[in-house]
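This follows on from our talk about sequence and fold. Can you supply me with one protein entry, sequence and fold together? Could you add the entry underneath, on a fresh line?
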Amino acid sequence: MRSYEYYFPDYVFPSHFPKGQARKIQSMKTQDSIKKAADLLIKARLENKLISLPDELRPISIEEGYQIQDAIIEEIGV
């Protein structure tokens, strides 16, 4: 799996970063992170709960979102 790095200027997330600085946000690196995110979402669905993924498991690209979606489909056997 490829690893991506994204740089966002302060106006994208103004409350999170000091003014005038850009911060590097690292994408998910491991298949393990994708599986953990998928497992949390499956559990939330089974328990009929609305959750927010932890920052370290939250996808920051469409590709990562699809990887989590694929892991969910593989796990539940749809």
